[in-house]
C-alpha cells in the first residue's frame, strides 16, 4: 500500500501527548503495511518504550534518536545546535530518500524554539517532502510559519497534569 497523497501534520501545545499521538499514527500506518520513520530531535539519553516497540515492528518502523543526554543547555546552545544541525541533515536525507510513507520529526518544533534549527530549514524540509509521504512535526511552540503551511494542526492543551502533584515520569507511560 502507498498513500495517495501525503499531508503535513503538526502536533503542538503545552499539553502531554504530542509524541504519543504521532506514535498512534505510526502504529496505524504499520498496521496497514506502511513504512514509518520517527526521527527524534533533542531526545538523547536512554531508550524509551517506543524504541523497544519499534524493534518489534521492524522493518516497518524505525526510530532514530538524536540529541545530547539531558535537556538543552539554554545558557550555551552551541553544542546542542551542532548536534541538532547534524541530525537535521540526516533527517533530511532520510525523508527525501522516498523510503518512508510516514515520517515523524519528533520535537523538531522544540528544536526550532530553542534556536537549534532555523524555521527556514524546517520550511525547506517541508518543501522537499516526497508527494506521497505523510510528514508529522511535533513539539511545543510550533512556529507560525510552520502552522501556516501545515494541512492539519492539533494543539495539546494542559488542563491538569499529575507531574504537578509530584508524580514523576513513569516507565511505560512517559518513557
UniProtKB/TrEMBL annotation:
<comment type="similarity">
    <text>Belongs to the Cob(I)alamin adenosyltransferase family.</text>
</comment>
<comment type="pathway">
    <text>Cofactor biosynthesis; adenosylcobalamin biosynthesis; adenosylcobalamin from cob(II)yrinate a,c-diamide: step 2/7.</text>
</comment>
<dbReference type="GO" id="GO:0005524">
    <property type="term" value="F:ATP binding"/>
</dbReference>
<dbReference type="InterPro" id="IPR027417">
    <property type="entry name" value="P-loop_NTPase"/>
</dbReference>
<comment type="function">
    <text>Required for both de novo synthesis of the corrin ring for the assimilation of exogenous corrinoids. Participates in the adenosylation of a variety of incomplete and complete corrinoids.</text>
</comment>
<dbReference type="InterPro" id="IPR003724">
    <property type="entry name" value="CblAdoTrfase_CobA"/>
</dbReference>
<protein>
    <recommendedName>
        <fullName>corrinoid adenosyltransferase</fullName>
        <ecNumber>2.5.1.17</ecNumber>
    </recommendedName>
</protein>
<dbReference type="GO" id="GO:0008817">
    <property type="term" value="F:corrinoid adenosyltransferase activity"/>
</dbReference>
<keyword id="KW-0808">Transferase</keyword>
<dbReference type="GO" id="GO:0009236">
    <property type="term" value="P:cobalamin biosynthetic process"/>
</dbReference>
<dbReference type="Pfam" id="PF02572">
    <property type="entry name" value="CobA_CobO_BtuR"/>
</dbReference>
